[in-house]
């Protein structure tokens, strides 16, 4: 039925008919759906699942925590929240721009946002000059907002269609855990104003460094089943070995 719709669209637009849609193995799909949550522990998915949970947890904790930490920085509560909201608007726009660029994509947008946010927050924790502290604090908030806006799209493209709903529901649960602990981390600012930026900045740097374990999904066909993920991983390994062989022969 979907192929008929695509053919009709191609005919109306004067384009050639699209190739038939490959139907996944019904038995394999039923098996994976019956496995439920356990299928996320498959060796082809477990790294994606763990890293994505860390992404959601860190992004939500830092995003909400920085807003709740407004009372610990040297500005009035109202001005602090106003500035925090103002930096998030261009951050979302920048995130939407970056994910479409061939030199960036989803992976680098998330990693760059986390690393920028974490680094700037840690710098703001050690600076004592008010202007520089605020500059790096809100630059960190900007980076966290970039990652927060992109991580949901990135996660959806990492998992196969038949278990995407299960995967996103669990990763979103980790985001809620992050939001739950953010008030307690922000309360640490009453003990020492430097503690919340250190906590949130450390989370972001760890999450940013974990992105090296994930593939880029921009322009890639979304996997329908776990077998599609396995084929993509095998293709990446083949490409890497071919590149190594090429460079080795060039050196000789």
Rg, nearest Å = 22 Å
Residue share in helices?
over 70%
| Overall pLDDT level | 86
Tell me the β content: under 5%
N- to C-terminal distance: 55 Å
- Count the E strands: 0
Class by alpha and beta content: mainly alpha
Number of helices: 9
Sum up the structure in keywords.
252 residues, mainly alpha, 9 helices, 0% strand, elongated, disordered C terminus
Explain the overall architecture.
The protein is mostly helical and 252 residues long. It is built from nine helices and no strands. The chain has helices at residues 2-12, 26-35, 46-68, 77-98, 105-126, 130-158, 164-187, 195-210, 226-251. Helix 3 (46-68) runs parallel beside helix 7 (164-187), helix 3 packs antiparallel against helix 8 (195-210) and helix 5 packs antiparallel against helix 8 (195-210). The chain is elongated, with a radius of gyration of 22 Å.
